[in-house]
Design a protein that fits this description.
- The chain is α+β, with helices and mostly antiparallel strands.
- Among the domains are: 110-252, no CATH class; 281-345.
- It has helices spanning 45-51, 54-61, 86-102, 110-118, 123-133, 140-145, 164-170, 172-180, 195-205, 208-231, 237-269, 321-338; strands at 36-37, 42-43, 281-290, 293-301, 307-316, 344-345.
- It has a 4-stranded mixed sheet with strand order 5-4-3-6, with helices on one face. Strands 1-2 form a two-stranded antiparallel sheet.
- Strand 1 (36-37) and strand 2 form a beta hairpin.
- Helix 5 crosses helix 10.
- The longest helix has 33 residues, at 237-269.
- The radius of gyration is 23 Å and the shape is globular.
- The two termini are 30 Å apart.
- Residues 102-108 have low confidence and may be disordered.
- The structure holds zinc ion.
- Residues 154, 156-157, 159-160, 166, 171 line the site of zinc ion (ZN).
């Protein structure tokens, strides 16, 4: 078994050792060994550049390759030998604790986390905001600190170091986005407050709807920044806001429809849908059709009743409705496992 690119922790210089670049749709490369040209003993640069964000492609290319054809092996990163020892684990825990205590962020508390996951926004928006709060989004300053030699200044205004604060709040261009958003935020100059402290105020003290707009706009600001950085595509301030708000409204409408459909289905079946406990995802499946033509559906919801993922599939079933139900369960389970959901209830 080789090391998996998007699932395993294998990047030595990355936060959490995990890949940040998203897996491209339809990508058939899955393991690290597929990125290596064993005849030359080098990384396959063309594949790296095609699959990963430029800074990550560079990071991979800088990993030295062994000339011996050993099997992949995962090692303990905090000891020089790669073997786990109690002493190195103790040292590691102390370092984490120190980092936690010196972190400027008061916003990384359970309270903020819970508020974030209650938001009626696409999970990736909440997740992005969480990463921004933890200070682990790949801004240019962050990359420099990790040893990646890229430009330091903001790709938008080229007038200040690109920190999390600058990239999501202080850049004049993004200040105009915030002002044009339904939140109408406006401030004259650079705010003397960390991004996490600033978010803390917005998320904790404001109504949930404000937090939802905030998370959505943050995500779209970063998306516009990446489009400019990696594809040279410019987006207007107005477009960022209107795209963000369209996505938010569309998602919340779908959630409403799913809730209505769930209530209707419960009324038909006489059963009440129950949310799973915190940290567990509930997988509901259904098969509908007649004769040999059947449609299978799966909906995955979290403990707040929000839809995390959903899918449908058409199939021919010759053996009747009971068999179709079994197919739906199998479809639901493999769909959930493919997406890496491990704590699930059916
Ligand atoms: Zn800027």
């Amino acid at each position: 078994m080789g090391v998996r690119i998007w699932e395993d922790n294998w990047l030595p210089n990355q936060q959490g050792f995990k890949m940040w670049s998203p897996k491209p749709v339809g990508c058939d490369v899955s393991h690290v060994f597929e990125l290596i040209d064993f005849s030359s003993g080098l990384w396959k640069r063309d594949i790296l550049q095609r699959l990963f964000l430029p800074f990550e492609a560079l990071q991979i290319e800088q990993i030295p390759l062994s000339s011996m054809e050993n099997d992949d092996q995962l090692v303990w990163a905090d000891s020089p030998t790669g073997f786990f020892t109690v002493k190195s684990a103790y040292h590691c825990i102390r370092t984490w604790k120190e980092q936690e205590n010196t972190s400027p962020s008061v916003a990384t508390s359970d309270h903020v986390w819970k508020k974030l996951w209650k938001m009626q926004v696409l999970p990736r928006f909440a997740h992005f905001l969480w990463r921004a709060l933890k200070g682990v989004i790949p801004t240019r300053q962050k990359l420099w600190n990790k040893g990646v030699r890229c430009p330091m200044f903001c790709p938008r205004c080229d007038n200040a170091t690109e920190t999390v604060e600058h990239a999501l709040r202080d850049c004049p261009w993004f200040r105009r986005v915030w002002f044009a958003s339904p939140l109408g935020f406006s401030w004259p100059n650079v705010v003397d407050q960390s991004f996490s402290a600033w978010c803390h105020e917005v998320i904790i003290s404001a109504p949930q709807e404000v937090g939802e707009i905030f998370a959505t706009v943050c995500y779209h600001i970063w998306k516009a920044r990446n489009l400019l950085c990696f594809e040279g595509k410019d987006t207007s301030e107005r477009m960022v806001v209107s795209h963000a708000m369209e996505t938010l409204t569309e998602f919340q409408e779908t959630q409403k429809q799913v809730r209505v459909a769930a209530v209707n289905a419960n009324q038909r079946s006489g059963k009440l849908w129950r949310a799973p406990e915190s940290g567990v995802l509930k997988v509901n499946v259904d098969a509908s059709g007649s004769g040999s033509r059947w449609g299978l559906a799966v909906v995955v919801r979290n403990s707040f009743g929000n839809v995390v993922a959903a899918a449908t599939k058409a199939m021919h079933v010759e053996l009747g409705p009971e068999y179709a139900e079994v197919c739906a369960i199998q479809f639901g389970m493999s769909f959930a496992l493919e997406r890496g959901f491990s704590e699930i209830a059916l």
